[in-house]
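Ig-like domain-containing protein
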Amino acid sequence: SQEVVQLECVKRAKLGDAVVLKCLTHSMWRYRVWYKQATNKTLQHLSSADYKYTPMVTDHRYFTESSAMETNLTILQMTEEDVGTYYCGIFKSRDVVFGSGTVLEIEGESEPVQSVLQSPEYIRAQPGDSVTLSCSFTSSQHQQEHTRVMWVKTGSDSQIISLKYGKENIFCEDTEEASCVHNLTLKDISSAEDGTYLCVVTACGDTLIGNATTIHVNGPFDLSTTVIALTVSNVVLGMAVVVLVWVLCNYHRKQPIFTSPVFLLFLSTTASSRQDTVVYSEVRNQHV
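Tokens:
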């Protein structure tokens, strides 16, 4: 079992409240300490105590109670400056063994994880390709150490693909409410990777699930959308040409020669020529 156990991952309280941060010490080592990690990531020493003697504190607002199996830190009146991560530790020989930490936040001001989004929503790939799935979320800076990102493939063969803790391959901005990104890369994929993938983000017991990414790996007979579109358009064009030729052939076959447009045009031209000749002859005779 762990030698130092901090019972609460996150503690939320109102300004002015008294806050008790609990720590179990499953060890008979007598010397205990409390540290606070502020927003700028520096460690601030708050108290030291040998549980058999009066503890030493660095601020009159702090109070430490210790026994053989626990050491609890009380903040008498919470202020905005108290927001941060608190670590309980024990001195063991020359080392200090710390607990996992307790995040102290102002009640109602923030949530551990917000707005988990996945991209892209759909991936079509060829066997042997590498694809990258992205999961982005907003997290309180103090809770990033307690954040877990898990990729799950759903379906009949549901399985956990990846599991990361803390800042292991999770990239976050260095701000109070940080945007974080975790990418999952699948290499040399095959039809076995076909399916829907979910990004599950957990921080201090709060869990949010992303909007899902679907991967489709083309089979040997799959055609791309472009190839399908070109094939269909060529077939339609070919059919249109065949129908047009058939209509024209039937039209000329059924219509007599003397009613065809070409023959009628020939007759019209001939008649006009004859009429011009007659008029010319009449005019000439009158002058003679």
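The longest helix spans residues 225-254.
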